[in-house]
Amino acid sequence: MTNIISLPNNLQIGGTDVLLMAGPCSVESYEQTRVVAKSMHELGLHVLRGGAFKPRTSPNVFQGLGLEGLKILRQVADEFGFLVITEALGVEQLPSVVEHSDIIQIGSRNMQHFPLLWAAGEQPKPILLKRGFMSTIQEWLAAAEHIVSRGNEKIILCERGIRSFDPSTRNVLDVNAIAQIKASTPFPIVADPSHATGRVDLVPAAARASLAAGADGLLVEVHPEPSSALSDGEQSLALKSFPAFVEDMRHIATAMGREIV
After folding, report:
1. For residues 253 and 171, what is the distance between their CA atoms, to the nearest angstrom?
2. Which of 28, 155, 8 has its CA nearest to residue 78?
3. Which helix (H) or strand (E) holds 204?
4. Between the CA of residue 37 and those of 23, 30, 40, 80, 242, what are the distances in Å?
5. How far is 32 from 181, CA to CA, in rounded Å?
6. Comparing C-alpha atoms, which of 180, 240, 238 is closest to residue 213?
7. Looking at the 3D structure of the chain, how many domains does it have?
8. CATH for 181
9. 3-state DSSP assignment of residue 4
10. Nearest Cα to Cα of residue 144 among 94, 97, 91, 181
């Protein structure tokens, strides 16, 4: 049976609710973040995601606003009564991320960054642990145990796609893994269809498949103008199409006996 993790604002993950966590890949400005949050609020959502520290493949592209980005996330979230989920890139950023967020994200590239896992396990907030894009399920679960070994059992796993030989998509969403995690572990699991596909046209289908497989939540990238995004615009839902996406997800969740929040 999946553990139910209690979150602030009377939210839970792992129960009948499906947590739809949305926001820009990278926090670019207060205005950009707030306009996305306003739309989320109107749609009845409760968790704002956004990157302040961005571990990009190339050092020559936008790396995030850092502490300024964290402050923007917190300011906007507090205005709308949201929770914040954002990534800690390393041990040195963890205290600032803990201060400004409600759920600590550990990214795919850091799944086996053991000092970061240990430090995250020694703080009390829930941790979303993304699967490494070259990692087996057993390696992923072993990484979660590193966190548990330091005292924090409030772990949310995130399937975000694994590397394949086919360049037509950024990664391959492992729907099997979602079902396997639900059947064999106590951890809630969410899916990140944005990174799993790398293509905005495939995000809705990947999200539907994830919910049908039993995912307890979705982590989705949304941007006011994806064509001008400083990171991952090609996989970000446009703000104007986001309401239709949320309505679609609500239909799938209802069919599964669950509810999008």
Report:
1. 24
2. 8
3. helix 203-212
4. 7, 10, 5, 7, 12
5. 35
6. 180
7. 1
8. 3.20.20.70
9. coil
10. 181
Query: Which amino acid is residue 58, in one-letter code?
Result: S
pLDDT digits (tens, 9 = 90+) for 56-101: 667 767 777 889 999 999 999 999 999 999 999 999 999 999 999 9
Domain that holds residue 240: 5-260
The count of other CB atoms within 10 Å of the CB of residue 217 is 26
Q: Which of 18, 80, 43 is nearest to 242 (CA)?
A: 43
Residue type at position 158: C
* 8 Å CB contact between 92 and 120: no
Structure tokens at 230: 């400083």
Residues 12, 17: Cα–Cα separation, whole Å: 7
Q: Is the dihedral of CA 184, 189, 245, 10 positive or negative?
A: positive
In terms of DSSP bridges, do strands 17-23 and 189-191 run parallel, antiparallel, or are they unpaired?
unpaired
Residues 6+ away with beta carbon under 8 Å from 168? none
Sign of CA dihedral 114, 116, 121, 127: negative
C-alpha 103/C-alpha 114 separation (Å) is: 19
Q: Which tokens hold the place of 94? A: 């963890």
Number of residues that make up the chain? 261
pLDDT digits (tens, 9 = 90+) for 185-217: 999 999 999 999 999 999 999 999 999 999 999
